[in-house]
Specification:
The protein has 65 residues and is an all-alpha fold. The chain has a domain of 42 residues. It is 69% helix and 0% strand. The model has no long low-confidence stretch (mean pLDDT 91).
């Protein structure tokens, strides 16, 4: 017989007993989440732009053997 070992369930129970788990459903929390999501969108767009420019630059390099 197999016994499934779940460390995440054990960790969740421990954190719950210590009072370190809370729901992020207050207006302040939602505002912070929205702000973080907007920032991450900017970061993603910046990264994609740099990646495209890098690919264009790499395609223009002429390799000599």
């Amino acid at each position: 017989m197999f016994k499934k070992i779940s460390r995440s369930a054990e960790i969740n129970e421990k954190l719950e007993k210590e009072g370190k788990i809370r729901f992020l459903d207050s207006a302040e929390d939602l505002a912070k989440i929205t702000s973080m999501n907007l920032y991450m969108d900017e970061v993603r767009k910046d990264y994609q732009m740099k990646e495209r420019l890098s690919q264009i630059s790499a395609s223009q390099v002429i390799l000599n053997a």
